[in-house]
Design brief:
About 15% of the residues lie in helices and about 50% in strands. It is mostly beta strands. The chain has a 17-stranded antiparallel β-sheet that branches.
Length: about 325
């Protein structure tokens, strides 16, 4: 904006437009623009969460006037989106009747294959929707972007997510998705590490059971992520779970492990038919459960005896609301 320095807007980097062609007015007096923009280490500021962009935006046709429209292709060798490193992104764009569409979006995230699409209403009221899927991403690379400090983790994962917002307000954002991790070492993740320490004490063993796989399915509504399934599994036993996590970092998870069957008959619960039969006949979830409730970083697990009776006494967890997040993490159409 005029009179505002790049440092104040957060916009930085190198931008070169070459070539740039502007057509003569047509019969309606409208002009068309085409050209190519080259980005080098470019960040768009707080309103658009794209940083360190290196690539090109090819504007194939941008029709100016009262009802603008256009089409083009963004090719990014590398960039950061919401602090996640992405590379080799190809994004076809089409803009018409106030609707911007990107389909399909392809690229690489944490060495995983990204594919998705989105639709954005560029006028008022703000609205958007879309979906994305990442296959075979590396958990250790994802952690470097999200939480660079702390103990290491590893694993190969697949994630899918669909989202929708009809007002532009974050409170109206809804979504659903699933995440699975395999070939992992998940013991140092915050929730898992807390449960590890608890199991080591409860079972009086020096080395608690390891978890190599995780599966989660979830929905997002009213700023609360509801995990209809959050299962941890390892070579010894599985620990099914469910619960909620709000955007303020408060968690309420309940796990129903099969300690008795798994330690009496190690590995038997991993067999589909036998495990299902034993799970139906000897239901340990009626006798006890493990509950983790509170702040994600400080919550302590507890054993809940007779969970069908005890857990019904507690008021369902409804979340604590959205904390004050840094503005750069909330693009203009989220606010």
């Amino acid at each position: 904006p005029e009179g505002v320095a790049p440092a104040e807007t957060g916009i930085r980097g190198a931008l070169e437009v070459r070539p740039l062609d502007l057509s003569a007015p047509d019969a309606d007096g409208r002009r068309s623009l085409s050209g190519r923009a080259h980005f080098q280490g470019f960040s768009f500021g707080e309103d658009l969460p794209i940083q360190d962009l290196e690539g090109t935006l090819e504007v194939q046709a941008l029709r100016l006037g009262p009802q603008p429209s256009g089409r083009g292709v963004l090719r990014a060798r590398r960039a950061r989106v919401f602090d996640l490193r992405v590379r080799d992104v190809v994004l076809p764009l089409a803009w018409n009747d106030g609707i911007l569409r990107g389909d399909p979006v392809t690229g690489v995230v944490a060495d995983g294959r990204l594919r998705g699409r989105f639709v954005l209403h560029t006028g008022e009221p703000a609205a958007y929707e879309g979906e994305a899927r990442v296959d075979d991403f590396r958990l250790e690379l994802l952690k470097e972007d999200i939480a660079p400090t702390g103990p290491p983790v590893r694993g190969i994962g697949t994630a899918s997510f669909s989202f929708r917002n009809r007002s532009g307000e974050l409170a109206d954002l809804t979504g659903a998705g699933a995440v699975s991790v395999r070939e992992g070492n998940l013991g140092d993740l915050p929730v898992v590490a807390t449960i590890f320490a608890f199991l080591a004490q409860a079972l009086a063993v020096q080395d608690p059971p390891t978890f190599e796989r995780a599966t989660a399915t979830f929905t997002l509504q009213d700023e609360v992520v509801t995990l209809s399934r959050f299962d941890l599994a390892g070579p010894l036993f599985e620990m099914p779970g469910r619960g909620t996590l709000d955007l303020g970092g408060f968690v309420d998870l309940t796990f129903t492990p099969d300690f008795v069957k798994s330690f009496a008959l190690p590995g038997i619960m991993q067999f589909p038919v036998v495990g299902n039969v034993l799970d139906a006949v000897l239901r340990e979830d009626l006798l006890y459960a493990i509950r983790l409730r509170g702040d994600l970083s400080t919550a302590e697990p507890e054993v809940v005896p007779l969970p069908p009776l005890r857990l019904q006494e507690d008021r369902p967890f409804e979340g604590t609301g959205l904390p004050q997040l840094p503005p750069r993490r909330l693009p203009r159409w989220f606010r």
